[in-house]
């Protein structure tokens, strides 16, 4: 009959603690009980797992193999217990979230604050900044990113589709005309947003091929909102997120161009560190954001 978990756990605890006395103190059990459990396990397996002396405890070859597999198994069971308990409990505690500044100020805020209203025991540290954030180093639970995931140590979940648009002011259309192909941008004033991947090298799809067009113009900014405002002012064409451009397009202060050449598939992603057990408050927020943006597309 398979040994019960108490004996397996005793074996792992004794080795992790460096001895029977230390394990007894650390885990609140008697030294005699731990010794009995380990002996029972060895008798069942028919091999010695530990070499015991008055000064030193070490694992035999069989003990090393058993410890390696048993410790992983116990960790998986502990993680499973914690996950089920966490899912059953209401979200609570501090959430540290990172997001791009303009997106956070224009789109994300209402979604996050609605989550807090539904979960009063959750507190928030929302950091809006346009820089790469090391989630592990800075203790961030969740980042909202509008880009492809590049760090393999992180996990990403799609929240919503995103799109970028090239737009220009009606006055600029009147003076320079509407570009017909991406290459036409080389001869037109453009607003360069240094926060964009590629910065002054804008990507398009033409005849099924991805191409890059180098642009230049009178203004360089490090903010999509400033690029948008410069375009509205007629200073050049801007490549900006659709959630910023759409309102100005509806108002007639910007004109979309080159729509058939823009890449598809961009998305808003929830990114978090690779952990065996994802905190319930983080999982609850991600689920909330998916539902929120299905009902409130941008």
UniProtKB/TrEMBL annotation:
InterPro entries, sorted: LysR-type_TF_proteobact-type, LysR_HTH_N, LysR_subst-bd, WH-like_DNA-bd_sf, WH_DNA-bd_sf
Gene Ontology terms describing biological process: DNA-templated transcription
One term of GO molecular function: sequence-specific DNA binding
Signal sequence, renumbered to the chain: none
Top-level taxonomic group: Bacteria
Keyword tags: DNA-binding, Transcription, Transcription regulation
Pfam family, one: HTH_1
The keyword DNA damage is annotated on this UniProt entry: no
Cited PANTHER family: HTH-TYPE TRANSCRIPTIONAL REGULATOR, TRANSCRIPTIONAL REGULATORY PROTEIN
Protein known as: DNA-binding transcriptional regulator, LysR family
Classification of source organism: Bacteria, Pseudomonadati, Pseudomonadota, Alphaproteobacteria, Hyphomicrobiales
């Amino acid at each position: 009959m398979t040994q019960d978990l108490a004996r397996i756990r005793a074996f792992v605890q004794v080795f992790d603690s460096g001895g029977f006395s230390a394990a007894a103190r650390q885990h609140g059990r008697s030294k005699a009980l731990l010794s009995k459990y380990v002996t029972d396990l060895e008798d069942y397996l028919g091999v010695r797992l530990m070499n015991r002396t008055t000064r030193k405890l070490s694992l035999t070859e069989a003990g090393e193999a058993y410890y390696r597999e048993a410790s992983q198994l116990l960790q998986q069971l502990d993680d499973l217990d914690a996950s089920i308990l966490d899912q059953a409990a209401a979200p609570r505690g501090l959430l540290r979230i990172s997001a791009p500044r303009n997106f956070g100020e224009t789109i994300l805020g209402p979604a996050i604050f609605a989550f807090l209203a539904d979960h009063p025991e959750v507190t928030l540290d929302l950091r809006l900044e346009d820089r790469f954030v090391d989630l592990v180093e800075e203790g961030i639970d969740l980042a909202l990113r509008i880009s492809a995931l590049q760090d393999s140590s992180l996990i990403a979940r799609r929240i919503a589709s995103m799109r970028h648009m090239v737009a220009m002011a009606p006055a600029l259309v009147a003076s320079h005309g509407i570009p017909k192909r991406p290459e036409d941008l080389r001869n037109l004033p453009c607003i360069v947003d240094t926060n964009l991947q590629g910065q002054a090298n804008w990507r398009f799809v033409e005849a099924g091929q991805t191409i890059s067009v180098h642009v230049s113009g009178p203004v360089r900014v490090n903010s999509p909102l400033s690029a948008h405002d410069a375009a509205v002012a007629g200073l050049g064409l801007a490549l900006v997120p659709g959630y910023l451009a759409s309102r100005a397009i509806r108002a007639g202060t910007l004109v979309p161009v080159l729509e058939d050449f823009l890449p598809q598939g961009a998305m808003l992603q929830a990114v978090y560190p690779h952990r065996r057990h994802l905190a319930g408050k983080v999982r609850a927020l991600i689920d909330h954001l998916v539902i929120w943006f299905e009902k409130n597309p941008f």
